[in-house]
Structure formats: structure tokens, C-alpha cells
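To whoever picks this up:

The parser on our side crashed when reading a file containing two proteins. I've narrowed it down to the boundary between the first structure block and the second sequence. Both blocks are reproduced below exactly, byte for byte. First block:
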Amino acid sequence: MRIGIVGISGFIGNILACAAHDAGHTVVGFSRRTTPQERGDFEMRHFDPAIPLPLQDLDAVVNLAGESIFSRWTPAKRKRILDSRVNSTRHIVNSLALHGNVRALVNISAIGFYGERGDTVLDEASSPGTGFLAEVTQAWEAEAVRAAEHGVRVVLPRLGMVLGKHGGANALLKPVFRCGLGGKLGSGRQWMSCIHVEDVAGIVLFALGKENLSGPINTVTETPLRNSDFTRVAAHAAHRPAFFAVPAFVLKLALGSMSRMILDSQRVLPARAMEEGYPYRFTTLESAVKNVFE
């Protein structure tokens, strides 16, 4: 396939591009920050929101574009998080409408869709939640599914916390645990649903190859863990103790409403990935954490 990747210069985009290339696909990257001369391994095209994207020679498009959520959520930041996702997706869908050859759009979403749900087991059939991230993902997905009106198959991978050796959440976690400063956050009883970046790339490519697969697909490991258990696993992988604990009120003072990302409980299962037979490289959260701490 000829696969266009919007946001190829990011952490997930780079891993996905390499995985797609290794699998024999042709990769075309789109980025606001990258010019064609800056990447010798893939063809690069500029993402310009003012003009239609050149998608006419592509079979599929993967959209990874969006403002980082890892900073205090001021009103201006909230607007950028929402607008960057909705507007970039709208631009891609409008461009797809001009090119009837594109058969599939994989539009990255997030398990923030489900909101705070305590101990409730969640799968793709679960109802949407409430809160800022839930509202963002619902608006984001609604924009993406418009592509179906133009005969495009739409897949919505809902990502959990992404772990990887050289980016994602691990860029924050690894130095903390390596210094022996890791510990449970808040009560430690909240559920964490995570995934290794290599399985993110794997599920995206798997979904592209499954012509009958559309709609949401939870992109998490099969074994969510409570935060206290995640702390234990990460500390063991880092060969360090994890005595520290950060009360919820401290996180709320330090991070404001962004603390919801850490304190909200989301016990998410990858029901569709399991039903479709996706072959996980890292079947448990423990194996994913061990890999990124090696």
C-alpha cells in the first residue's frame, strides 16, 4: 500500500513509518515542521491547512496530528488541544473528498473518550464519558467519521498511555524511576491502560490490512493495572525502590486539571483487537514496561 502519515515527525509517527516501510509499504509523510529535504528515507510533503492535501496517489491515510497534552491546561492550551485535532482532521477529510482513490483513514483517538469510570470494565461498545478529554475525543472522532460519506473506511484507534524507549510517557517515567523517586500517584487504585509504541504501529498496520474492520479499536494491552501495581512493575524493571507517594491534592495543585490524566481510572480492554486476532508483541503491561526500561 501507499500510506500517507500525517504527523510523521512525532514519536509514534516515526515508529509507524519505519514499521510500514519494513512491512513493504510505501510511506509518504506529511508534516508542518519537515521539508522534503529533511527526510531521505521517505517522501515528504508539507501539511498546509490552507490548501488541499495531495492525497491522489495514496491508498490510505493515518492521522497522528495534534497538540501535545503534556502541560498545564490553561484555557488557551485547551483550545489548542481541541482545535489542532478537530481542524487537522477536518482538513484531511475535506482533502479525501477530492480524491476517490483513498480507501482508508486511520484517525488516532484516545481512551480519554471513556472519561473517569472507576472499576468499570470498558470496551469499544462502552458509552462515552464526561470531562475535557472525553469531549475532545468525541469531537475528534465525529470529524473523522465524516470520511465514510465519501466511501472511505474509517478506523479509530483509541490509544492508552503509550510507552517506548525513546519517547511517549516513558520520557517522563524512566528518569524518575531510575532515580528511585517513583511511587504511586493519588490513591494508587486507579486503573492504567497502556501500550507499547511498537504495538500501536502494529495495530494500525493490522487495521489497514483488515478491510472489514472499521470504527473504534481500543489500542491498549490486554492487562490493565492499578497505578500501585504499575509502580511496582516499573520500579522492579528499573531495579530501584519506589517508596514515594504523591497525594492527589498535590498533583491537582501542581498540574491543575491536567492531573485528571493521572488520577482518572480507565480499565480498558482491547476487545476488538483480541476478537480480530491481532498478534501482540507485548501481551502484558509488565512485558512492555520491562522492554522500555532495558
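<<boundary where parser fails>>
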Amino acid sequence: MPDKKQVKELMVPVEDYPRVYDTDTLQDCIKTLKKSIEVGKGYRSLLVFSKTRKVAGEEELVGILTVRDILNAIKRNTMLYSEKELYSMSWALFFRHEPLKIVVSNKAGD
């Protein structure tokens, strides 16, 4: 029978997670995630802090942004309309740099 481990032995400490601010753009968030991959961490989520809201003098943690949240935001912002029909974007768009530039320049919460 395997040893029982405590959660603290399995968790990622808050200090190790990449962080962004609620005023950052989606592009900033993607760059931060990319940096975490480059240094070997490879996290799939970001801690989101507020520069204006404080708790005991520290920046307040206001949320968590995941890779899925980022992909959903990009998908929402790249929907195509043709008269009365709505077309979802193609996954091929994720592999082309230029069309995504406008989409990821939006604020993270948009």
C-alpha cells in the first residue's frame, strides 16, 4: 500500500505560480505562460492579482486564469458572422500568428 501523502507534499506553492494583473492583456498572459514553460515549470494556469485592491497591504488575488480560459476568450473574439449565421473559427487560426495579434491585444477580462 502506498504511503499516505499530505496535500502540502503534492501542491505547488503559491509563490511558484506565474502571476499577471487584471489589467494585463491576453497577449501578456500568453507570454507569461510561455516563459513558465521555457524555465521548465509549464503551468497551465496563472494567478491574477489586482494592482489597486489590497489585502493587508499586499496585492489582492482576484482570480485564476487557465489555458482553457485563454483559448475560450480567443475563440469568442474570433467568431465569424455571415449574414444570419455564426461560424466558429477554425483551429487552424491558432497556428497563424497575424490573425491572433488583434485578438490577444485585448484586456484579459474582455
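After patching the parser it read the second block fine. The chain has four helices and five strands. Residues 40 and 86 are 39 Å apart (CA to CA).
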